[in-house]
Amino acid sequence: MSRVAVLKGGRSLEREVSLRSGARVEDALERLGHDVVAIDVGGDLVERLRDSHPDVAFVALHGRDGEDGTVQEILELLDVPYTGSGVSACIRCMDKVLAKHAMRDAGIPTPDFYAFNETAFKELGAGGALPEIEERLEFPIVVKPAAQGSALGIKFARSAADVPAALVAAFSYDSKVLLERHVEGRDLAVSVVDLDDGPTALPVVEAVPRGEDFYDFEARYEIGRSEFVCPADIAETTAGEAQRLALEVYRLLGCAGFARVDLMLDRESEALTVLETNAIPGLTETSLLPQAAEAAGLGFDELVERLVELAVRAPTARPTRSPRA
Predict the structure, then answer these.
(1) Active site residue: 276, 287, 305, 318, which one?
(2) Do 242 and 172 form a contact (C-beta atoms < 8 A)?
(3) Which of 86, 276, 284, 313 has CB 3.0 to 4.6 Å from 20, enough for a Cys bridge?
């Protein structure tokens, strides 16, 4: 058995979700017989890792510092193997704009979008181009921060009058915002786990908010706010296409270990589009990855054990950094 440091909490806006994910992982690791070191990530992270000498780190952090490659850089510097994707994949997944450009360049369907940072609005007059953006995307428009997860900061602009407030809300979470064509339809998610045969797409999950028209942060994490259907009640061909797209995105962004790809199924055309990829999916009681794993016959403890095993082997798969000459 291994000495496993569970990294959780941190200072991102998704701290509470991360604490819940981490606690659930800790319980599983203890049942599996591992020596667990729980670390609420803060300014003493390096010191605590050096003192505890873990064999592997289970990264259960969500949002900034934990999901954007930052903590992964630290772990690599300290030669601590860790679960999940490497630095570059985390960076690509966390930045929705970067990921969407990569998908569009690769021919993977994703809703049309435009993205700007604060400088564009303050110094380049990008606000003057809003009528053109609105005309090309058509209302309603989804306005979201470029680098937040768990539906934080996302607003609907149903008319031109709603756009300024939506931009202000998005900019309060990040310095870059994404304006995206809204797809009216069904929220789907496909989780991918590296199994013996390589990356494997798990059954499709559909999230159906109760009494809401949008799957927001509260609907995602408060028990009873959403109904989750797994496998999703969709045509077999549609499910297969969703899984194919998820695997394609997983490979495109360089993910490893596990990830979750969020998609929309257009209500009228039944076309699938990819919204984003989460390099460290939630592992709470209401999170979608554990539900999909359960539907595939992969229990939570087995999933956690698999991720730890992959982490121990991961350093041989990740690119090594050459020392200075």
Answers:
(1) 276
(2) no
(3) 284
Half-sphere exposure of 30 (CA within 13 A, CB side): 10
Q: What is the pTM for the complete model shown?
A: 0.88
Who's near 263: CB < 8 A, 6+ residues apart? 188, 189, 190, 242, 245, 246, 272, 273, 274, 275
What pLDDT score does 221 carry?
39
225 catalytically annotated: no
Rounded-to-integer distance, Cα 176 and Cα 313, Å? 36
Does position 181 have pLDDT exceeding 50, yes or no?
A: yes
> What one-character DSSP code corresponds to residue 60?
-
- Active site annotation includes 117: no
pLDDT tens per residue across span 216-232: 434 443 444 568 899 99
Indicate the length of the chain as a whole number: 325
Q: Is 299 a catalytic residue?
A: no
Q: How confident is the model at residue 211 (pLDDT cuts 50, 70, 90)?
A: low
User: What per-residue string of b and e applies to 110-128 under the rule 16 or more CB within 10 Å gives b?
Assistant: bbebbbbbeeebeeeebee
**Known catalytic residue: 215?**
no
The reply to whether 262 belongs to the active site is yes
Local confidence band at 316 (pLDDT 50, 70, 90 cut-offs): very low
Instruction: Provide CB contacts within 8 A for 98, sequence distance 6+.
Output: 91, 92
* Minimum mean pLDDT range among 78-87, 89-98, 216-225: 216-225
List, as one string, the DSSP characters of 257-293. Answer: SEEEEEEEEETTT--EEEEEEESS---STT-HHHHHH
177 neighbors 219 (Cβ within 8 angstroms): no
